[in-house]
Amino acid sequence: MSAELAGRIAVVTGAGSGLGAAMGRRFAEAGMAVAALDIDEARARETAAALAGSCGVPTMSAGVDVGDPGSLRAAAAAVEAALGGCDVLCANVGVQQFGAIDRLTDDDWTWVINVNVLGTVRTVAAFLPLLRRRDGWRRILLTASSGVFVPGVRLGAYQASKFAVWGYGETLRQELAGEGIGVTVLFPAGMTTRHLESSARAKPADKGEWVLAPDDVEAMMSSRKMGDSHVATAEHAVRNLIADLVANEPFIITHGDYRAEYHERLATIEAAFDRMERS
Question: What CATH code is assigned to 2-278?
Fold first, then answer.
């Protein structure tokens, strides 16, 4: 596995902390060069420096706003100039806005969809030409959410955006298969990261105040029957990342004890097929 990856180049958005930083570390440990991209340029720089120091691989960093196609195009040009291209692209994009459906504003929705969905699409559009200029093993990883399997309350905008990322990834996998570029969708559960803090900092002032009501998280966790196993470190969440990408697995489920709830939902879908076939 290491021989296949050593010397190749990974690009990770959201690499300034949390899941993105953990992804970068896994790639660096496999001997890959890493481009750490984040809207927080200082944190992206810290990630790149840490990986270069601990793993001895080439790294670079850049500030990037996935809401701005020009920013992504500039980042792609910088990555190609500094590292030579891209073999693995992790479109690890996600902002969170809690709130009951009737409290979410139009600005809340447009912000979340613009970053999580269109930001993912823009990231792939910017870096796909680099992937196509490389030979051999190439992969794209898209970050969705466990919420698509076990939806909960107070997460309407976020869950809708991650359903969209999943659907986009399914189509992208089919369309790129003939070029030898694999596409994998990652479904992380809760993690001990800066996700909420970074979401609050990333929301533009013209989109309104980032709000977290006192009972939002508790209500969400109760509705999804979430226990302690549903929350893990980002490092634990990416423990199988390299092996699953090498195997070109279509999906990666990182952690969480929610298989029973997923099967309950699956049973209701099967029942709908049964009713259709009986009618």
Answer: 3.40.50.720
